[in-house]
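tokens incoming
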């Protein structure tokens, strides 16, 4: 794992430094401009956009603009956003996205995250592996005190991913899809710094050099 936990002296907020996170099967790295086909491919997958309204991009040009915005946010100082491409190390293929950032209006050390993975590689534990790596970075390098995420209640695979990564269900609320108007239940998950330490002590970290599950 690389990428420093360097902080702005005045605000204490982590500043922009390139990040590379390695797991046994994945590389999490900063977006590059030529990653836009991945963003576009994800936007064309109904199984992904069903739960990711922000990925409903109409064409390749919009996918490129989304990616440019993500890269620009990654480069800001002090840094608040960490939007990463997921690379399958065996094939060097870009297979998904995972992003985290400081939560607006919350404590300075609270982070939230989200993700999307190409359906062609679902069912192999990749996202659980990636989330564990991201949690390790947030708690170890960014000194997070709490990390949270949410998913639709009927998105059972995503709920399992969060639970296997060590997060716990904290609330359930209704949300309305901005495009379809559909209202459904969403689950909010969180893990504290103390909880993450307990989880990493009680299980083998995916950051260790061992075969992936």
């Amino acid at each position: 794992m690389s990428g420093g936990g360097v902080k702005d002296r005045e605000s204490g907020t982590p500043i922009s430094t390139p990040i590379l996170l390695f797991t046994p099967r994945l590389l999490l790295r900063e977006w590059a401009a030529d990653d836009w086909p991945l963003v576009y491919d994800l936007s064309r997958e109904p199984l992904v956009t069903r739960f990711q309204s922000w990925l409903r991009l109409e064409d390749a040009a919009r996918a490129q603009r989304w990616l440019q915005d993500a890269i620009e946010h990654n480069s800001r100082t002090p840094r608040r956003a960490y939007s990463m491409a997921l690379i399958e190390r065996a094939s060097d293929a870009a297979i998904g996205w995972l992003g985290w950032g400081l939560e607006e209006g919350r404590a300075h050390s609270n982070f939230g995250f989200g993700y999307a993975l190409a359906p062609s590689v679902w069912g192999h534990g990749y996202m659980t592996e990636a989330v564990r790596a991201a949690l390790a970075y947030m708690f170890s390098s960014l000194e997070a005190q709490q990390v949270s995420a949410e998913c639709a209640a009927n998105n059972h695979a995503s709920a399992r991913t969060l639970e296997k990564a060590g997060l716990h269900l904290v609330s359930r609320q209704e949300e309305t899809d901005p495009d379809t108007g559909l209202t459904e239940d969403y689950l909010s998950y969180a893990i504290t710094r103390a909880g993450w330490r307990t989880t990493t002590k009680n299980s083998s970290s995916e950051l260790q050099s061992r075969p992936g599950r």
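note: The first strand starts at residue 20 and ends at 22.
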